[in-house]
Amino acid sequence: MKHSLFGAALTLLAGAVPALAEMTDIRFTLGWKTQGSDAPFLLALHKGYFEDEGLNVTIDQGEGSAATVTRIMGGAYDAGFGDINAIIQNAAARPGEAPVMVYQLWNRPPFAIVTPKTAGIETPADFEGKTLGGAQGTPTTRLFPVFAELNGVDLDKVGKENMAPNLQEPMMIRGDIDGAFVFTSTSWFNLIANRQDPAKDYNWFNFEDYGMDLYSNGMMVSRDLMAENPDAVAGLVRALNKATMEVAANQDSSVEAILAFDNLVDPELERARLEFALTNLMNAPEVETIGMGDLVDERLTRSIGIVAKGYGLDRLPEASEIFDRSFLPPAEMRAFDVTLN
């Protein structure tokens, strides 16, 4: 009897070994330090949705949404949360090497120019004679010449000052600059941290309102992962989609997942940042028709042209080089309905 039980146990253990060996390791990078807008990825990790897909996902903090692309291209990571415009930039110079977006989360861009109302800037023409500050190389800064051309602003009449991102809001508050090139999802909360009222006391020139119809952050994967293990990519997308639907419906569980990943964050601040992303960056009208995760090819093609102009690209990549929807679940599984609670 003992021998029989022992043999049965060995058989069960032997059967478990192949199952464990089938788990696929995925190295994943966020776009920045832990933020509320990372909730879909952190919820999928916390609730085991990646594991359910046979994926052993390790998530690291990032160094910027554009750096996600170079981190993946360098081979350190298989996938990440980053900016589609950085994919466009790198795909133009190194075709076949840049990662590919497989799930578009931010279907509205966070790029904006923010100005204190005391600066008297009410229209783009009012930028002339003023000084704007920003970090060199960010999309908002790099794309400002295109913004200026589309909106009749004479660049020669606009002062520009380079500075570290963490200095933008303090210098604007002190009056050292008249406005700043920012990411709304960051600057809004930096102003609150500096005891400012971003809604009442500041004007926001969101690029999307001034002819800059751009996409932004989503989940991208390496071309090697797509080629060598498409099933893993499909699993990543399914897990992320499941978590994204849950994040839209339940921010309480989202904050729990964020804290489980990084217990040093301010839960109230990151909840507010998550709600900001849900209601300002993930709610383009097209989502009602095509669902979360997808995008409109014609719009992407237009945005490629805008990025090419802003970055001086020699080649315009095709939309198919930048985004691949073949891994998306059916549209009915991606119906996106935000309920703040």
UniProtKB/TrEMBL annotation:
Which BP terms in the Gene Ontology apply to this protein? thiamine biosynthetic process
Annotated signal sequence is 1-21
Any single GO molecular-function term of the entry would be: transferase activity
UniProt pathway annotation = Cofactor biosynthesis; thiamine diphosphate biosynthesis
Subunit architecture: Homodimer.
UniProt lists the family membership as follows: Belongs to the NMT1/THI5 family.
Q: What does this protein do?
A: Responsible for the formation of the pyrimidine heterocycle in the thiamine biosynthesis pathway. Catalyzes the formation of hydroxymethylpyrimidine phosphate (HMP-P) from histidine and pyridoxal phosphate (PLP). The protein uses PLP and the active site histidine to form HMP-P, generating an inactive enzyme. The enzyme can only undergo a single turnover, which suggests it is a suicide enzyme.
Q: What is this protein called?
A: Thiamine pyrimidine synthase
